[in-house]
Amino acid sequence: MNYEISLLTTMAIAVTFALSLNLITGFCGQISLGHATFQGVGAYAAAMLGQAGWPFLATLPVSMILAGLLGAIVGLASLRVRADFLAITTMGVGFLFVGIVRQQDALGGELGISSIPDHGLGRVGFMVLALIVCAAVAALSVYIKRSWMGRVFNGIAEDEDTMRVLGIDVPRYKLAAFAMGTALAGLSGAFYAYHLNFIGAESFGFVESITVLSMVVFGGIGSVPGVIIAAALLSVLPAWFQVIGDYKLLVYGGLLFLMMRFSPGGMTGLVNRFARPKTSAQGNQS
Amino acid sequence: MSKPLDGATLLKVDHVTVRFGGLTAVDDVSFEVHEGDLLGLIGPNGAGKTTMMRSIIGVVQPTEGSVSLDGESLNGLPVHKRIQRGMSLSQQLVKPLRDISIAENVAMAAASDKTISPLRALLNVSTDKELAIAQNELARVGIASMAAQSPGIQPLGVLKRLELARALALKPRLLLLDEPLAGLNSQEAHALATTIAEINKQGLTIVLIEHNLGEVMRICHRLVVLDNGKKIGDGDPRTVMTDPIVRAAYLGGDTVSAAVVHSDMENQHA
User: Which of A237, B38, B75, B145 has its CA 20 to 30 A from that of A183?
Assistant: First the structure.
């Protein structure tokens, strides 16, 4: 039973994390190659506050705020420039994060932070809370998609220049997506730290950023149910198949390439294509 | 025939120069657009018309000079701020959002009060009001029946009208049209030009870039002529077109006089 509880918790955290990137990449069309950094910021914040005696629940808002703040700073520095600049900047920030954390003894250095105190919710309680947070983030995603914010995000993902001519403050919307997405990544990081009781810089490196990006792409960029299913599946695969754990970058990198090449709409796109054969991308009026 | 220019100055282009590296695309151009005007901005290919339009809307910042709307300088303002101040641009290359319907495309423009900040956009879900405005604007340009369709499958004539409806849905004080007739056949061009003239009669100030000289002569109150980035003519269309400098520079004398006589001249691109 313990194994299933742990598995479900892992899934819930991974889905929350993937949905947070989906806000940025899926909804708003901004590619981030360093999303794990923001999960890392949340994880380290929660772990260190926990060691300092803070209760688990109190660490959550701080993790979110710190990750979101760093996100806003990175966003401000890169979102006003060309579209692909963000991908490069976030990748750089990712390497910077790992590099700095490994050198700082205060942050655990190479050894990471172990003996993170217990959350005091019990295994089931922690799992339920992780699932609730995951569901709330999913609900928020669905709501955003239906709101005018979601419509604007969609427009920006398709054609920034046109949105500008429609009077949209494009950089501000991108920044909003980035700040929200990174804050929620920080939240998932806090759960991650308390779930594993141990974190190290390597847990939030480039491989993890690619992994979460491939979850979003695999599920179907922008599709909330697609991303949930993809993240749930891909997060437990390494636990079931040792091979995948050993060749993570190869598997996820390959997946990313195959999806972009053959089905840019991800699994959601594939399902739609088979469910509605012969209907063009435009869809049918009726 | 042409309306007297008694309106107040709405747009003022003051000694604008735009340089790209060594190339001077717009060279010290000044003109004014008055309230209620329908001004044709014309000139041969490469004369700097589109660059002029882009420096008005803010895609390009002028190297020298200034652009002001209603007495307030627009210098340094990004595109979206200028749009929010009451300008809108119908682009030469029609770029609808292809994932959403024609009506939703127009509604996106109509929602400008809800999308002015991300927070306000997040708190608003309803599209009823915007879709109603969209339906209105689509009727105004004559494609109300296509509202529910996807823009991806439409002919250029419909897309040009969609672009115009979207620009109108922003409720501008000044409408900038960049070659709205390009690519249309003479019948479609005639119909759309008539629509543009009607919209102007309803009180909207319009600046029109257009190569279709026949339609320009038919609907514009005033012309500004550019050649090699310089202004070479400004005033009543017929007077401007009989000016020897304009006739020499723009298309060659014969073509111009022919266009003045036969205002149903074929589109230059056809």
Answer: A237
Among A115-124, A218-227, B19-28, B103-112, which range has the highest average pLDDT? Answer: B103-112
What average pLDDT does range B210-220 have in this prediction? 91
Which three-class secondary structure state does DSSP give residue B127? coil
Do residues B164 and B192 both lie within one domain?
no
Evaluate whether residue A10 is within a structural domain: yes
- Percentage of the residues of chain A whose pLDDT score is greater than 70: 95
Residues 162-201 of A with CB under 8 A from B: 162, 164-170, 172-173, 176
CATH classification of the domain holding B233? 3.40.50.300
- Asked if B125's CB is within 8 angstroms of A147's CB, the reply is yes
Number of folded domains that form chain A: 1
Residue A154: predicted pLDDT: 93
If phi > 0 it is left, if psi is from -120 to 50 it is alpha, else beta; for residue B65 that is left
Interface contact flag, B150 A162, Cβ < 8 Å? no
Q: Which domain holds residue B151?
A: 95-170
Tokens of A37: 């950094």
Take residue B194 and report the two structure tokens written for it. 């008539």
What is the pLDDT, as a whole number, of residue A82? 66
* Mean pLDDT, rounded, for B147-159: 90
Euclidean distance between CA atoms A228 and A19, whole angstroms: 7
How high does pLDDT run on average in chain B?
Answer: 87
* pLDDT above 60 (res B159): yes
pLDDT < 70 stretches in chain A: 81-83, 276-286
Enter the ipTM: 0.84
Q: Return all residues near B208 (Cβ < 8 A) that are at least 6 apart.
A: B38, B39, B40, B41, B177, B180, B196, B216, B219, B220
Contacts of A168 in chain B (CB under 8 A): 80, 115
pLDDT, averaged across chain A: 88
Kindly determine whether residue A155 and residue B97, on different chains, have CB atoms separated by under 8 Å: yes
Q: Which residues contact B23 (CB under 8 A, 6 or more apart)?
A: none
Contact between chains at B98 and A158 (C-beta distance less than 8 A): yes
Record: contact A168-B80, CB cut-off 8 A: yes
What three-state secondary structure class fits A226? helix
Q: Are B261 and B268 in contact (CB under 8 A)?
A: no
Query: Are B132 and B204 contained in the same domain?
Result: no
Which candidate from A143, A169, A281 shows the least CB-CB separation from B80? A169
pLDDT higher than 50, residue B266: no
Per-residue H/E/C for A12-44: HHHHHHHHHHHHHHHHCCCCCCCHHHHHHHHHH
Q: How crowded is residue B6: how many other Cβ atoms within 10 Å of its Cβ? A: 8
Torsion of CA A27, A32, A37, A43, to 10 degrees: 10
* Predicted pLDDT at B1: 41
Q: What range defines the domain where residue A183 resides?
A: 2-205
